[in-house]
Each structure stands twice: as structure tokens, then as C-alpha cells.
Amino acid sequence: MLFGVAQSAFKSLRQTTPRVRVYLYNKNAYSTQIEYKPIRSVLVANRGEIAIRVFRACTELGIKSVAIYSEQDKMHMHRQKADESYLVGKGLPPVEAYLNIPEIIRVCKENDVDAVHPGYGFLSERSDFAQAVIDAGLRFIGPAPKVVQQMGDKVAARIAAIEAGVPIVPGTDGPVTTKAEAVEFCKKHGLPVIFKAAYGGGGRGMRVVRKMDEVEEMFERASSEAKAAFGNGAMFIEKFIERPRHIEVQLLGDKAGNVVHLYERDCSVQRRHQKVVEIAPAPRLPKEVRDQMTTAAVRLAKHVGYENAGTVEFLCDESGNFYFIEVNARLQVEHTVTEEITGIDLVQSQIRVAEGMTLPELGYTQDKIKSRGYAIQCRVTTEDPANDFQPSTGRLEVFRSGEGMGIRLDSASAFAGAIISPYYDSLLVKIISHASDLQSSASKMNRALREFRIRGVKTNIPFLLNVLENQKFLHGVLDTYFIDEHPQLFKFRVSQNRAQKLLNYLGEVLVNGPQTPLATSLKPAEVKPNIPTVPLVTEPPKGLRHILTTQGPAAFAKEVRSRKNLLLMDTTFRDAHQSLLATRVRSHDLLNISPFVANKFNNLYALENWGGATFDVALRFLHECPWERLEDMRKRIPNIPFQMLLRGANAVGYTNYPDNVVYKFCELAVQTGMDIFRVFDSLNYLPNLILGMEAAGKAGGVVEAAISYTGDVSDPSRTKYDLKYYTNLADELVKAGTHVLSIKDMAGLLKPQAARLLISAIRDRHPDVPIHIHTHDTSGAGVASMLACAEAGADVVDVAVDSMSGMTSQPSMGAIVASLQDTPLDTKFQLSDISEYSAYWEQTRTLYAPFECTTTMKSGNADVYMNEIPGGQYTNLQFQAFSLGLGDFFEDVKKAYREANLLLGDIIKVTPSSKVVGDLAQFMVQNKLTANEVLDKAEELSFPKSVVEFLQGSIGIPHGGFPEPLRSRVLKDMPRIEGRPGENLPPLDFDKLKKELKESHPHVSERDVMSAALYPAVTEDYLHFREAYGPVDKLDTRIFLTGPKVGEEFEVNLEKGKTLSLKTLAMAEDLTPNGEREVFFEMNGQLRSVLIRDKEAVKELHIHPKASKSNKNEVGAPMPGTVIDIRVKEGDKVEKGQPLVVLSAMKMEMVVQAPKAGVVKKLEISNGMKLEGDDLLMTVE
């Protein structure tokens, strides 16, 4: 309390009692008369964090603070922190506003300002500004104008250093303004040399040149940067010292000629000559070198009559020799670390010296200034270290800082909602740590950086963390090559940024609608399915997978065959929803029920949960990784074998792939958790089938070779696919080494009587091979057929849980279980468990109302025995017919399907051959063609691509050969494929594919590469989506599909122990100038908002186009900025790497190079145009 009163009295005294002292001191530039005159108000001729730093010192001293701001800074925090703030430079470019000396002086005179603090950068080293301040009757908080001029002139500073006996580096005698002068110096003194801005510092306009052919270009770029930053492009050139440390000595002088040093700072950790991390004192600096360096600095300062705060910079080589670089006649960005180790407030000291106080009066004599511990400063900048530190601008969506003991933060506009503009320096916040030793200080800094959460713009925090964890840094082994020689500093842990990405996704859905196409206008139900409970912290009971993992595939098959009861495979996780819900069931809902399945259905033969269409749909429509789905299901269901559907040589695609792709796919599938591979071919073409079998077997999986069933073996008139055809095929597959033999009845054509005939015949020929039957219940006879199969000797049949069974899905699990209770084939499953399982899916199914097959299909239909449409295709065809406006003609489509099948030779119909028949059927209905008309007009019709490729032999050779004369008429002289389609395909170069993917997606995994090998374009789109919107698979299904309602509260479980609590608050009605709407959320109790471009609204606005990331011909702006030089024109031929455009942002210039060779087709930019990141620059084809 007493201290507070005393401090208040001191402030009052300052404001009312001027004092005058006279010193008879006449040496150098020091005054002979020193007047102590309190300063009542200070204007800071600067912006950002340094302005706020000075304002804080003023407030502590009881001095009024005055800010200036440009039009672009009207929302900036520094103007709000001052007691008063005034606009300057109206109508001027952003930087020039702060360089307008007459206007700054006018603001001072009009508002009773006593003194001006220049901060750093801008006018801080301009002697004409210091003189203008003094000529206006104001005090300049800094050195005298003469000293500012002398020290700002690199040549004069060198001369002063020589006169003071301070060692220097060879360099030009004066500023250099032309390329010719630069070339001449380089020829005379040799390379390497360094170009420096003659009238400014901070790394701006600085370039190291090692090759003569780079001199002119480097000089031009450096001079241009210097002019933009300091208003003068003149350069200073000096010999470049290899492997130096950059060490600077902090000085403080008064008007009476007293000069002290506040020890040194090591600023060697630099990038592009910009300091990144600073340490005080310099680690591992010998005491004798420190003493010599500080003595030399003080001697130079006294020689030139230096007063106020300043820094003398040196280069120190490995031998301890040091060379004068320059004097910074101002406060440095890194002054903070000196303050921490000495306890001296440099800014307050600057003001007090400007008032007339002497260093002894302030208690600052050299013997009293001690260094305590180690301090580190890290400059957090809005730059993307993973993208060559390109400036990142935009809005801070999230800002949460790191704090705590030993941490100091100096910042400006670092808060959620702040706009980071491209007009000024990229510095966001300075973090300063202080501890007893270097390692402890680094540990505190590391912890603080990890606490930061900054979203909306990229920052260099990942890079800073790598620096702080580098062993050389931690031991103080530093030089200016530190960053260049440690490429591992640029290997970053990926910042997941999951929460903000999910908010962007939710905002996108709310503004622009569903991000996956909805098949109907129906909406997902507002229901949260009840998940049955399971025992906590207990392992699920063992199942057949235990035999497989401990004894291998052969033992597994033997165990299956030895079982006397009927085994079941549950298709609910794949084929059931593929048939009923367009394959749209998400991992989220599958994983919710997985623990219950593991605990209650451990005696399943397998759970079919992967492959087929699920792979494509997961990537294309659900925006989730199919590999992660498999991995996550395996973690929750460790005890039940998993089965997938493998399309032989087509893997899980719709075309033939090189053999090594199929082998690699199976290998990766087994590694991720797959057990059983049901291998089939859409034409029962043995070469394709056997390739898939070999790939699955080599990977270590159970091979379940499948015979695709069509026709009717119980009908003697159906001779193409008779009993002998199937038994011969079975013989071939057993001979090829299948572990299990499967009958794949994809259309539900296997009638009970045919089932008895077929299964009995195969069982008689192969008594030791397990037989597994798959069917669809389209006709309604599925349960009867599966019971007939079981009685005839089948070991396993496919079922789906009751609420996901029937129609085009599989027969009912409950019905088959109940039918076999208390018989020798009893499945041993409990109906009560099936009921709970079914109840979950009954509720969950309502979430997928937009894809519900019952929208168009109300019941099963026995006409499938005539049209033979596969179950999964039946509902898809129905949806397609409705989407094409043929809903009323679906009966015609079914009839045409039958005709198309016969036209094509009565082929096996399963993906992809079923698509060929379906495409031809719809083609016939749309064009009102009969089968005869198709045949007659075949030479003139434009057939669907799939039909043409089938006839060419792209998916294999059908049983009985290709249909003639249709094939010849359609193909005419087109090429034909003989034999296995993929046999002659060259192996895929996975390393090359990975390298290509990494160019756009640096963090791709082996799984991503595999997905891209199968679905290149789909995977590319998925990767872009994932990078933009994060793990959308964690969202509840209704929210994923149609978004949350305004006011709705919901949770998102990102992982164990990490849950987001979200609430949708509002969506702005007004658009921003860029056509964006702001969507507001509450996340974990904090307000968050995202800006989403309204795709409909922007059609009426003129918005600069963005470069499409998936279009390699489009060249986008790598960073926001202004176009300052266009080096090509439309029609120019360019080579890869050729400079196209020069952009400028945050005082940094960047040359955009051609990503490939080609011709400039269209330019989308002009000089002076301001661009955002990814704005389209040009098209190169």
C-alpha cells in the first residue's frame, strides 16, 4: 500500500516539477548541459507488439501513450492499448503510412506530445526523422540524429569502428546503387559476398551470393526489398565470413557520456538472415572473448558519442576472432532476453535517459549490472515452415497462448478473430523464457510453445519446437549455418487441428448443403441409436480367429469342416447395407456396435465387413479411409474372423490392375486385420480368379474361392450353366488350392431344389473342403434356400441381422437361427442377442433414410428369376432410374436388363459385368430400343463405354465366348484383348506414385498410396477433403449428412479421453466482400466461428478464381500478396522451374516458378493485383 502511494506521488512529481542540472562535460557528441525534464506524453511512431511494449513502459512511468495507425490497422490492438490514437497516411499504401514524417510530426504538435519513440523498423534508423522530431521541439527517444546518421550509414559506421580500434570485415566504401557496381566489387574481391540494405536492417534486402551469374538477379531482388522496407534501395556489400556466430552487445548510454553494456545475445539461429531464436547470454562464449567484445562495443559507442539504447553486432568465427558488422541505433526486437537476464527495463531506461537522467542516477554502473541465468526468445510468425516459410494470412480462428512460470509474452493482435494482413511483418508473438541454465530455459519454452493453439493461419511453431529439441542447440553449439545444416528441423509432426477442421466441415454443410450426394429428399431421423451394453474391461470370448492366428489357414479350414452345426457369416457390416442403403453405412455406426458383436457373436464363421463397393464408397462419398475402418474394427473385434470381397484381378476396383497392385493390396489388407478373402471373378474367368487366390494366399489370408452362380441347375432346359459347369469349376478351384469353396449367388437365383442338387454334387466330389453359400433374398425364398444348402452339406451360410435382412439383402439371421434350434445343425446363437443386435440396426437404419431402398422398393420380387439382377445392383438401378427420370419405367428397365443380358451372351452378372448389362439396359430404355434394333443398328449406335470395353475383352472372356455378330458390329476395327487383361500390364511403380502424391500431400501413408493405386482421382479428392475438413467420420451420422440445427448441442469423440462439446449458435445473413458467411459455434464453452464461401451467392459476385488442387495445369498463388512482376505472357513456352511471377507479402518477395513445362494458355492476373493464397495466376498446358 505504501509503495503504491509513493509510486503515485513520484508520478505526480514527474508531471509538475522540471529540474535542470548542468554538466561540464565536453567530449565527442555529448552535451555540455543536461536538462532533466520529465516527459508527460510519448507517441510511438510504430505499430504492433513494439508499440504496445512502449505503451506499457509509459503506463508504468505514469506517462500518457499516443498511437498512430494506418487505415489497414484500424482494427489493430496497438491503437486500443494506447491512451490516444490517431490515423496517419490516409490513402497511402500500408507501409508508407508509417513512413510519413510530416504527418507524424503534425499529430505530435496537435496533441501536445512531448517525445517520440521510433520502435524498430520503419523510421527508427532514419536520421532525418530524428532531426524532424527535434526540430519540432520534441524529444527523440534514441540517439542524436548525427549518431543515427553515422551508424545508419554502413560506410561511416565502418570508419568509426576503424577509428575506435574495432576489427571490421572488408567491404564497399559507400552505398552501391547499381548492378554494375555490385559486379565490379565481386570481381575485385571474389565470392562469397553479402548484400545488405544500406539504410535498414532486420534481414530485409539481404542476400548471400556465391556464384557470379547470380550477382545481378540477387542485387535486383535485395535492392527491391530494401526500397520497399526502408524507402531506399541502396546496398552495402562486404566479404562473407563462413560459419560465423552472430553475437550482439546491448549498450545503454546517457547524455553525460556514460556507456555500459548489458552483456551479449547470440542471434546465430537465423533463416534468410532473419533472426528466429535469440539467447542471452551467448552460450559457450569464452570469458576473454566476451570481455574483448563488450569492451570494443563500449569503446565504439563512446567514440561516436552514443546515448540511449543501441546494439553493436559482431560476427565471431570458430577461432574467437570477431568482426564489427553494424550498429543498430535503436531498440532491437530481441531486447527482451537482455531484460530478463539483467532485470533492467530497457524501454523505461530509454525514456529516462531521454528525460535527462544519467546512468549512475538510475543505478546502472557496470559493476552493478549482472547476468543471471539464460533467456531465450522465440519469434512466433505467421509463416508456413512446411511450405518454405511462405507468409500465411487470414483470420485467427483460435488463439490460446502458453504461459506459466518463467514465460513472458510480448504480442499485439494475438486474439481469436484478429486479421493477419499481408501488409506488414509476419511476427505474431514473442515468447521469452528465463531459467537458471540453457536447458531449463529451453524446456520452459518448449512447454509454452506446446500450449499454444493457433488456428486459421499457419505458424512456425512446429519449426521452433524442432530447434528447441535439437541437441546442438540445447548445448549451445551454434553458428549461422545451424538451420541450413539441420534438415531434420523441417520434418514436422503434423498438426492435426481436428476441431477447427470439423467446424469448417459443419459450416460448409450449413452454408452449402450436404457434402455427400443424397439419393432422395428424405432426411435422416433425429434418433440416437441405443447401443447394447457389454462387459467392461474384459476380453471378448475366443472364436474361430484364435485357430487361424495360432495354427494358420489350413487348420482353420479343417476346424470349420469338422463342425457339425451350421456356421453363419454376418453380412450386416458390408453386403447388407450395400444392398439396402447404397453402401452408405459409416464407420461411426459400425464401430458403435462392434464391441457387442465381439462379445455376443464370437462363434460366427466370419464377419463380412470390407471390400466390394465399400472401399470406393468410403473414399468417394463418406470421406473416410477404408483402411482405418478395417483397423478400428479389428481393435474392437479381435476374436471373430473378418472376411472381405476381392474381385479377383480387379482387387476392389472396377478394372484390371497390374499384378503387383493386387498382391500389394492383399498384403496390406492382412497387415491391417483382414483374414478371409472371398475371391471371385465377374465372369468366372479362371485366370482372373486364380491371380486373386494366389495374391490372397501369399499374403497369409484364408482363400475362399467363389463360383458366381447364375441360371438354374434344377431346370434341364437351362444348359449353358448346368451342374457339370459348376462341378468342373469347383474342381479347378480346389485344385488351385482354395481353403474354402464358396457359391456366390449374387442375384438370389439359387432355389431350394437347385441348392440341394448343387451342394450335394460338390460335397460328393470334395468331402474335406468347407462349402460356404452366399445369396440374396430378393425373391423371398432365401431362408428356404439356405436351409436346403445346410441340409445338403454346406458348412456356412450368409445371413444379415433381421432389421437389415430381406429383399435385396441376405436372409434373416433370426429366422435361420430359430429354424435350426434343437436340431443337429443348431447354430447355438441366442434369439435374445439377435433381437438386441437387430434393435440397434433398426434405429440406425433410419439415419440413412436418404439412401433407403424402400423409398422405391417396397417388397421382394420373384421376377428376379427372370431378369437375374444382382441384389446390390437391383436397388442401385432403381435409384438410377429415378434420377434419370425413368422411375415410371423401372419395369421396362428390368425387362431390358433381361434382354441386354441375352444380347451379351447370357453372362455371369456381378460387379463389374453386372454394370455392363445394367448400362446397356438403361441405354435401351432411354433410346427406346428393342434387342433386335440394338443388334441391327449396332454399327451406328454409340454404346456405353462399359459395353464397348467388355466386348474388347477388358474384364476377361465370358463362358462360351463373346456374342457374335454383336461384338464384331460394335467393335469394327477396334483393338481386342486376348487372354487375361492384366497379364501384360507393366508393374506399378509404387515409389514413383508415392513421390507424386507427396508433392501435393506431404504426409501420405502407405495406405494412401495403395488407395491411389486403385482409385487415383477418388483418392486425390479424398486427401484434399481430409486435409480441409479432418476426421468427419467421428461425427454422428445425421450431423455428417445434413448438419446440426441452430441451437443444437452435441458431442464429438475424437479419441479416447478427447471429446468436443459443440453447439451451433447462428449463421450470418450478410456476406463478406469475398462472398463468405460467418457461422458461429460454441466449442468446449468457447466461442468459435468459421467463414464459409457461399457457393450460390458468389455466382453473383466477381470473385477471383481459385486454382484447383486437382488440376495440374492451374498455377495458384503460393501465398497471399501483391503481384509486382509478371515475367510471361499468354502464348509463351515455359520450362519447368522457370520464373513466372514475383509476389510480395510481409516485406518478402517470392518468385513463383513453373510447376511443369508447357504453354501459358491464360493469365488471370495483372501487376499490382492483390491476391489471396491459392488464387489462380495462370493456366499452363
Automatic annotation (TrEMBL):
Q: Which residues carry this modification: N6-biotinyllysine?
A: K1147
Domain annotation Lipoyl-binding: ranges:
1112-1181
Which residues are involved in binding substrate? Answer: R647, T911
- GO biological process: one example: gluconeogenesis
Instruction: Name the chemical reaction catalysed here.
Output: hydrogencarbonate + pyruvate + ATP = oxaloacetate + ADP + phosphate + H(+)
- Pyruvate carboxyltransferase domain residues are 566-835
Question: Ranges for the ATP-grasp domain?
Answer: 158-355
EC main class here is: ligase
Which Pfam family is one of this chain's hits?
Answer: PYC_OADA
Q: Where does Mn(2+) bind?
A: D575, K744, H774, H776
What pathway is this protein said to act in by its record? Carbohydrate biosynthesis; gluconeogenesis
List its EC numbers: 6.4.1.1
Q: Which UniProt keywords apply?
A: ATP-binding, Biotin, Gluconeogenesis, Ligase, Metal-binding, Multifunctional enzyme, Nucleotide-binding
Which amino acids does the record list as binding ATP? Answer: K154, E238, H273
Function, as annotated: Catalyzes a 2-step reaction, involving the ATP-dependent carboxylation of the covalently attached biotin in the first step and the transfer of the carboxyl group to pyruvate in the second.
Name this protein carries in UniProt: Pyruvate carboxylase
State the organism named in the record: Stomoxys calcitrans (Stable fly)
